[in-house]
Each structure stands twice: as structure tokens, then as C-alpha cells.
Specification:
By secondary structure, this protein is an alpha/beta fold. It is built from 16 helices and 17 strands. A 10-stranded mixed β-sheet has the order 1-4-3-2-5-6-8-7-9-10, with helices on both faces. α1 crosses α3.
């Protein structure tokens, strides 16, 4: 890892709010200035300011090239993984501990002893609050000895949040420059329990002793650099490592592509998945997380499913809702006053019968994935709309529905036209306070619903 000299550090501090492309063209070549490195740091900090605000507030963080910043976890998704780990290991969850040298040695391991900077202390205080860690005088001592290993370290964002809940945390990564970067950044963040191991994660898994928690984020690229999604096509192949992971940890958290069918992924792991977490932010599915663990009973149990979209969270026993794609038995209400659209995590889970039961709404039709109710529903996990009018696709109904409207937000669910095709047919501009939904009701009727957001 290239360390910034004084000239480069000063340039970054002076220009970090400026446009990187303009800086690349206009910056004066000053002796000692490493301009490519400076531009990477400015671009990285600008991404981190929105994606990783706690990291951005910490002085001394060194950022990787642009592509790694775009692909790394966000603060929200990384914190959520830490919440999973601490909940799984409760009630014996640990506070952050300063771990003395245990006497273990590893020729491939480096261990830093950083001083906690003011900004890093702020980060840690925020983390303590988020994870409900103790602020007692014992916070800096070993309260409960917990160990975790991240076998696919990468840039280290997920590791940095997971590590805060463990007294011993090991980061394993094959690429030396990423290891050097992680060692520097974990020190800057005050994570002195972190151990950095440069080596192959699978080999490390085979040789290491048992730990409480393992984390893996398999690379979703093949040998040609093309994107891949199937579990067996990722590196490492977690399916092949399943039994070894179960033998070496109490729980293993696996991050997979949000493109995967979670039911198939659970089936692939053959009864060892304890929990499924579908994580979205900004109503966009970001991650599919599986928690692997030893079977408690002889018969494999269905996993619990957690649907998360920012602060909207529901969970359920998947065994009780095995018919998630069916239409419920109840008819549509006579008064269709409100329309509800589930968030991205619910849509991915497919637990539409659960939504009907838990929130007292009714699916409008087969595969439409929209819900109606006669009365408003509090805390619905998604968007809600007041229905102003419902009509068919004939000219008379369309004229009544539009009533002189020149622009609208258009969405379609299980409808014969795409949103652009419907917009063109209705001759509407985009935007405004009107929301039009094209969908199929029970009875296979194609309808338009004119709504306003609530």
C-alpha cells in the first residue's frame, strides 16, 4: 500500500469537496504530489461521505480505487450484519475489548496496536450505541471471549462492523495490497482486536480452530471477470465448504447475490440454513444473507425469514407460509379506498399471504402483488396510496380517470403494457402528484387505478 506523503495529504484535505475530473485536468503538478493517489482518496472520501459516513468522519482512512468503493457494502448493510451476529450470539454478546497478545503466532499474521484517534473514538461510540454495547468501566477489558473470522476480507467494511462485537476478529484475504489497506484502516478505526492474515480463506478455514462466527462474501466473478450468480459458480463455492463451516463455527453468515431465489438457495444447503435475511435500502434489494448452523432437531426445520428495507422490518416462520405466491381466500373489499405496494424485500421474499394476514389487506389479483383495503393501514412495509378512481381501459373510463391530467407517475404490475407503453397510450408526461397503476384484478380484469401518495 502506498502511504500518502505530506504533499499528497495536504492536497487531499484542500480539494476533497471538488470535482475529481476537473482536478485531474487542472491540478498543478507539485513536486512530491502523487496526483493519482490523491484523486483516488478524494473520490473515495466523496463516496464514503454518503455510503460510509462513519468511515468518512475518521481521519486516516485510505480508500481503494473507485471500483472497489462502488462495490463495497454500505454502512447500513454492514451494521445490519453486525446486528445479526450479536443477536445470534446473545445473551453473551461481547463489548469491544482490547485483547492482549494470546501468545498465538502466525507467520502470515500482523497485529497492530494503534492509539484511538478522536474521530475513531467517535465512530466507536456511535457503534456502541447502535449495537447496545456497554459503556461501563469494563468496556476496555475482556468481558466475554468471542471470536469471529471473515474468510473473504476484501476492502474490510463488513469486517470492521462485525469485529466490534467480538474480542478476537480475524480478517483473511489473499491480495497483499488489500491486507495492507485493511491493517492500516482497522488501526485508524481503533479496532485493535483485529488480526490481518494474508492467505487463502479456504486453506485458513481448514487449518483454524473452532470460532463462534464465520463470515463469507464469495466473489461473484468467474475466471474471465464475468458476473455470476449461482452459489456453485462463486469463489469460494460455499456449498462445498458447508460441512467444514458447520464444524468450525457456531454460526456462519453467507452473503449472496440478491438475484438468487432464496428458496432454492435454502434447498441447496440441505437443511442447514437457520435464517434468511433479505436486505434492501432505498427500496432496492442489495443482499441475500443466509445464516448456517447445526440442526437442533433431527428433522430439518424451515428457516425464519427477515425482510428489511431501511427501518421497515418484518420476520416470519417460512414453514407457516409455504404458499407465498397464492391469492388469499378472501374476496376484494367492497370499498377499495387504499392501495399498498410492498417494499423490495417483501417482493423478493414473496410472502404475500403473510402480508394479507398481518396487515389486513387483500391482494388485488393473481401475480399483481398490490393490496387494497377499505381503511388506512399503519406501518405497512412499503408505499401507501389513497385511491381516487378505478376504471378500465376503454376511452370513457380513461377520460374519467385522467380528468384533464397532463402528467402522472406510472407503474404497472401484471399488466399487458409496459409503463412506457402505457404512458405513450395515455399521452402523459412524467411526474406530478398523480400516481397511476395498471394492474389485473381478481377476475382477470385489466384496470387503471388513479391514486395519490399518503
Amino acid at each position: 500500500m502506498t502511504i500518502m506523503n505530506d504533499e499528497t495529504r495536504e492536497f487531499v484535505a484542500m480539494h476533497r469537496n471538488e470535482d475529481v475530473r476537473e482536478l485531474a485536468l487542472k491540478a498543478k503538478r507539485v513536486e512530491g504530489l502523487d496526483l493519482p493517489l490523491a484523486l483516488d482518496q478524494i473520490a473515495g472520501w466523496q463516496i464514503a461521505r454518503k455510503k460510509l459516513p462513519q468511515w468518512a468522519s475518521c481521519e486516516g482512512i485510505v480508500y481503494p480505487p473507485h471500483i472497489s468503493m462502488e462495490q463495497c457494502s454500505s454502512q447500513f448493510t454492514a451494521q445490519y450484519k453486525s446486528e445479526i451476529a450479536q443477536t445470534l450470539l446473545a445473551p453473551a454478546a461481547t463489548v469491544r475489548a482490547r485483547v492482549s497478545d494470546s501468545g498465538e503466532s502466525d507467520n502470515q499474521t500482523t497485529k497492530s496496536e494503534p492509539q484511538l484517534s478522536d474521530s475513531a473514538e467517535s465512530v466507536m461510540q456511535t457503534a456502541k450505541s447502535a449495537f447496545q454495547l456497554s459503556d461501563s468501566p469494563e468496556s476496555d477489558t475482556l468481558v466475554a471471549k468471542r471470536a469471529m473470522v471473515d474468510l473473504t476480507g476484501g476492502f474490510g467494511v463488513d469486517f470492521s462492523y462485525l469485529a466490534r462485537g467480538f474480542s478476537q476478529a480475524t480478517y483473511v484475504e489473499r491480495q497483499r495490497h488489500l491486507c495492507d489497506l485493511a491493517e492500516h484502516n482497522m488501526a485508524a478505526l481503533g479496532l485493535d482486536q483485529a488480526r490481518i492474515v494474508c492467505g487463502d480463506g479456504v486453506e485458513y478455514l481448514r487449518q483454524m480452530g473452532p470460532v463462534d462466527f464465520i463470515y463469507l462474501d464469495p466473489a461473484r466473478r468467474d475466471e474471465h471477470g464475468s458476473r455470476t450468480y449461482a452459489i456453485e459458480d462463486c469463489t469460494p463455492n460455499v456449498l462445498e465448504l458447508r460441512d467444514l463451516l458447520l464444524a468450525k463455527s457456531q454460526y456462519t453468515l453467507v452473503k449472496l447475490s440478491p438475484m438468487l431465489d432464496w428458496r432454492k438457495a435454502v434447498a441447496d444447503f440441505d437443511g442447514t440454513v437457520r435464517e434468511v435475511h433479505i436486505v434492501a435500502t432505498g427500496n432496492e434489494c442489495k443482499e441475500l444473507l443466509l445464516v448456517l448452523g447445526q440442526q437442533v432437531h433431527e428433522e430439518p426445520s424451515a428457516p425464519r425469514v427477515f425482510c428489511v428495507n431501511d427501518n421497515q422490518r418484518i420476520d416470519y416462520d417460512s414453514a407457516a407460509y409455504t404458499q407465498g405466491l397464492r391469492i388469499g381466500g378472501k374476496p376484494l373489499p367492497e370499498a377499495k379506498n387504499y392501495l399498498y405496494e410492498p417494499n423490495a424485500s417483501i417482493m423478493k421474499a414473496g410472502c404475500f399471504d403473510l402480508v394479507e394476514e398481518r396487515f389486513g389487506v387483500t391482494q388485488v389479483g393473481p401475480s399483481s402483488h398490490l393490496f387494497v383495503s377499505a381503511t388506512p393501514v399503519a406501518d405497512f412495509p412499503g408505499r401507501g396510496f389513497a385511491i381516487e378512481a378505478i376504471g378500465g381501459m376503454n376511452k370513457k373510463d380513461i377520460k374519467r380517470l385522467l380528468n384533464g391530467t397532463k402528467q402522472a407517475n406510472i407503474a404497472v404490475r401484471n399488466f399487458p403494457l409496459t409503463a412506457p407503453q402505457l404512458r405513450k397510450k395515455l399521452k402523459l408526461a412524467d411526474g406530478g402528484p398523480v400516481y397511476l397503476f395498471g394492474t389485473t384484478m381478481q377476475g382477470c380484469d385489466h384496470v387503471l387505478l388513479r391514486t395519490s401518495k399518503i
